[in-house]
Every structure is written in structure tokens, then in C-alpha cells.
Amino acid sequence: MAEDQQKFRSDTSEAAELYRRYSRLEQGIFVREQSTLTTYSSPVNFIEAMQRPRHRWFPYKEGFSPSFVNDFLPTASSAKGGVVFDPFSGSGTTSIVAGERGLDGLGFDVSPLTNFVATVKATTMNAKELRSFRKHIAEFSGSPLIAVAAQPDNETVKRYFEDDVLNSLLRAKAFFKEIDCSKTAPLFKLAFLTAIEPFSTHRKAGNGVKRKTNYAWPSAHKDSVLALKEFLVKQLEMFASDIEQTTDFRSPIFRQRSCLGEALSDEVEDVSAVLTSPPYANCFDYSKIYMSELWLGDFFASKSDQNDFRQASLRSHVHATWKERYQKAGSPVVDEVIRPYIEGQSLWSPKIGSMLSGYFADLGNLLNNLKPRLRQNARMGFVVGNSFYGGIPVATDLLLADLGRSQGYLVEEVRVYRGVIPSSQQYRKLGDNRKYMRESMVILRRP
Ligand SMILES: C[S@@+](CC[C@H](N)C(=O)[O-])C[C@H]1O[C@@H](n2cnc3c(N)ncnc32)[C@H](O)[C@@H]1O
Fold it and tell me: Parallel, antiparallel, or unpaired: how do β-strands 392-394 and 387-389 relate?
């Protein structure tokens, strides 16, 4: 049953108990209201990133605004050689900005796609390598692109392209697969990945893709090979020019790895700052939104790759069934109030209650494992968006701050950036409790 059609339940005693628990949390946590902040409309600003060298190499809508990161990170002199860590690094904005400031950046992400994107964005080249890169761009520009790479083994992805366009993409792919240079080939592949959505008949929309209303590829060329070549050459020349102009860049390290459980211990040491944004608890499935890029980029070759990815990710979605994990460090408010309340309703998925429990248990596990790896006084910023299910707001920011406090962190503040309006009609009935629907940053400090 659609959530909107259900009886409004936020006047129940369970909802009243939830608001009492939120008020109690607010008594011990400083919430800096939106009205006192004039700097950013949102820390997540993809448009700002698209105007900055390196950051503009891949349009990742979930990515941070680079200037937001810049304002949060310590200076090179105050960090004194420590590592800037982003456990959910996505397209790598935190670590790339760290590199621009001469700091050591380290980012983990479970997605092979975003890990690839971030790694390529960290490319540096000497003059000889740049000359070789430009030579490959010229060869590509003049090539008739005769060879064709294999079709992706996924019927849904194939349906997102006109046949002729898919063939052109596979011809460009065959070209760069033959490039025998470990720095140049990934740059070609990244340019290819950026062409996928502009040349597809579908665009990313919400938690999936939608057919474009007026489909046309981004060029005046009638021939799709010429249009694609023009697009790719422009991208590649932009990469070359950014590499040339950002020479005092300290290349960060990116790993395709989960930040949960044992994996964290390997490499994460002497952390002076963390700035991160975990997926919000909103059921988005990154493996669906980025399906075309994941399959055409050969990051997924079978359904089991997709399953492994979903299984390893934070429990922010309902597309996997997890074995019991990290039970110890969850949120009491979620486990005692929110989960039973949500499980008493018939939402579109019966897994939402356990997903929310798991979400906080996973984050609790991360906070617990991170603590000994942080320097004293290290500051951590977690950008989160609160969610809304069955007529009640899930105040992730307060709950995460509480989780941090229970693990011995100091809660500096919850900084509210903007209100978020859920699509559900029930939101209108929230009254004063609408304030909990927001995007904010939870700032924790290791004492
Ligand atoms: C909101 S995005 C981060 C965007 C990033 N701040 C940027 O500027 O590009 C969240 C990322 O968390 C990743 N993720 C989900 N579960 C994870 C896990 N267990 N370990 C590491 N990364 C994970 C997702 O693949 C996604 O790329």
C-alpha cells in the first residue's frame, strides 16, 4: 500500500514517545539552526563541483561541494602530517580537496565505479606522460573506430540506448581498451563513462532512471560516432588541461573497500580529520541509479557482482538480506521506538524497520572502529539527510550525534543546512515536527 494512502499515525502514543525522545536528545546536543548559516544552501552541490578543475571530471550528483570541504578541513600546518579520511568517499571530493591543500587524503568506497572515478581524478602526470596522453587524444580524434567492443550482458542497460548510439559507444570503448598506458587508458575510460548519460535515452531521476522527454545527443552532428568523438575529445582535453594546471597536488589514495567491520583496520591510521557523507537512510540503490555506467564500464559482469555490492554497502536500502551483523552499537531510539512503530504499519517494504536498525548499527560499528585511529581532538563531520517513513521523521542527525556521544565522542554541534520536503502528503500534518526534516552535518570530536 502506498505510504500516502495510509491512515496518518503521527498522533499515536508511539509517535508522542518519539518526539519526547527527540526533545530529550536536543537538551544535550547543540543544534545550530539554518537561519544562522549563510554560507551554503547545501554541502552537497554538484553544480559547484562541475566548475572546479578535477572535480568536474565526473558529474556525481551525490558529491560534496569542494568549497564546503575546503572550509571544514584543517590547514596543512594544523594537521601536521595526519591523514584526512573519508569512509564513504564516493567521487572522492574530500580527499581530492585534501590533496589540493597538501594534505594526505584517504578514501574508501564499496562501489567499483566511484572508486575508479575518484582514483582517476587523482591522476598526476609529468611532461612526457602529458605529451603521450595528448598524442592518444589526437589518434582517437582521427580514428575511424572500426573495432566494436562486446555488448554488456544486461538487457535492461541495452534498452537505455538507441542501437546506433550503443554501437558508437562500443566502438569508442574498443579504442581505449587497446591503449597500453596505465595513466592514459583510465582517463579515456572516465571520459567514456561521462558520455553514457548524455547519449542515453534515459536520465537519472530519484531512485532510478526515467526516459528523457526530448531525447537528443549533445552535438549538432547527425552521425552518432562523430557526435560521441566530439564529446569525448572535449572531455579528454579538459582532463589534460586540468592535470597541467594543478601540479602542486598531493595525490590521495582511494580503495574499493567497505569501511565497516575488519576492513577498516588495515590502513587507517593517524587520522587528523574525517569529512564524509554516508548514503542517507532513504532506500536509494546506487547499483540501480548507476546501472548503465556499472555495466558498460565492466564494473559489473554478472548479477552476483551487483549482489556483492549491495551486500557490502551500508544498510541504507532494502535490496539485500543481511545476516546479523554489528548488533552491539545501534541506536536505542530506533530499536525501541522507531522500528516497532514502523513494523506495525504496512509500508511498501516490510524491511524498512530492520533497515533503519541496521543503518545505525553499521554507523555505530564505524564510529567504534574509527576511534582508536583518530588523533586526539580530531574532528569528524558527517553530512546526513533525515528521512520520513509512515508519518514520522527519522532524525538521523540527532540519532547519530547520540550514537557518537554514547561511544565517548564529544558532540560539537549539529549544523542544519536546509529543510528537506518529502514527497509524502503526510509531511504536511507534522506541524512543528517538520523541523526534523532537514539535511545537516553532525560534528564529533575525539576527546
Ligand atoms: C553520498 S555518497 C558520498 C559522496 C561523496 N561525499 C562525494 O563527494 O562524492 C555515499 C557513498 O557511500 C558508499 N558506500 C555505501 N556503503 C559503503 C560502505 N559500507 N563502505 C564504504 N562506502 C560505502 C556508496 O557507494 C556511495 O558512493
Answer: antiparallel
